[in-house]
Write a structure and sequence with these properties.
A seven-stranded mixed beta sheet has the order 5-4-3-6-7-8-9, with helices on one face. A two-stranded antiparallel sheet has the order 1-2. It has 217 residues and is an alpha/beta fold. 40% of the residues are buried. It is globular, with a radius of gyration of 16 Å. It has six helices and nine strands, in the order H-H-E-E-H-E-H-E-H-E-E-H-E-E-E. The chain has a domain of 151 residues: 3-Layer(aba) Sandwich (Rossmann fold). Bound molecules: S-adenosyl-L-homocysteine.
Length: 217
């Protein structure tokens, strides 16, 4: 594997992906350029690397998936809201792809994952890519997120609970934005939760399909 891409083909296919994201309504040039700069083929198995720049989710093992690029771009764009949040929490490191895109756009990323081998692999890749503003943690199952490191200016949840866990609200700083899918397996909706000076607002964004957020047990 090399870090630059699979030759020119990958640059061209990456550009094609970025153009289709633009066509689908992603307008934040910083997000588009962070995704242009991120070698997604390194985050999937070599056997499916030729599909890495398709606009689709792909298996990463352990029954989990790397999110669809459009969804990564959409969640990131809405969370940023044309600003540069200092501290962002990601729940569900998975392959580490979304973490990498975030690390180029925010002060620092705190990412938690419950499957240890996935977390280790993502950590190794972030180290190789010399991303120094990412903090990793194995999710213990006794709590959601990373309460000790919060509150966060942004929270991205990349797995879907049936209902939004109460304790995530408390990890959002005033003025902060959380993007979270929620609902039953075939009827999930992506929500934007904003913390305002007098509480929380909830906006429904669009229908989505995520792997389930595993609860505390
Ligand atoms: N952002 C990832 C998407 C990974 S899929 C990427 O870009 O590749 C969602 C991930 O959430 C899975 O790896 C799953 O193991 C993890 N997950 C599910 N429930 C979790 C929980 N309660 N805490 C932390 N991670 C969780």
């Amino acid at each position: 594997m090399n870090l630059d891409g699979i030759g020119m083909t990958s640059l061209r296919t990456r550009m094609r992906l970025i153009n289709s994201l633009r066509d689908m309504g992603i307008s934040d040039e910083k997000v588009l350029s962070a995704m242009m700069d991120t070698p997604r083929h390194l985050f999937v198995d070599e056997g499916i690397a030729s599909h890495a720049y398709d606009n689709s989710s792909l298996p990463i093992g352990y029954g989990q998936t790397i999110s669809q690029p459009y969804i990564v771009a959409l969640m990131t764009q809405i969370m940023l809201n044309d600003r540069k949040p200092a501290k962002v929490l990601e729940i569900g490191t998975g392959s580490g792809y979304q973490t990498t895109v975030l690390s180029k756009l925010v002060g620092s990323v705190y990412s938690v994952e419950r499957i240890e081998p996935l977390l280790k692999q993502a950590k190794r890749l972030h180290y190789r890519l010399r991303l120094r503003n990412i903090y990793h943690k194995l999710a213990k199952g006794s709590t959601y997120g990373w309460p000790d490191a919060g509150p966060f200016d942004g929270i991205l949840v990349t797995a879907a609970p049936q209902t939004i866990p109460e304790e995530l609200y408390a990890q959002l700083a005033p003025g902060g934005r959380m993007l979270i899918p929620s609902g039953k397996e075939n009827a999930q909706e992506l929500y934007l939760i904003e913390r305002t000076s007098n509480g929380f607002t909830e906006t429904s964004i669009e229908s989505v399909r995520f792997v389930p957020l595993i609860g505390k047990n």
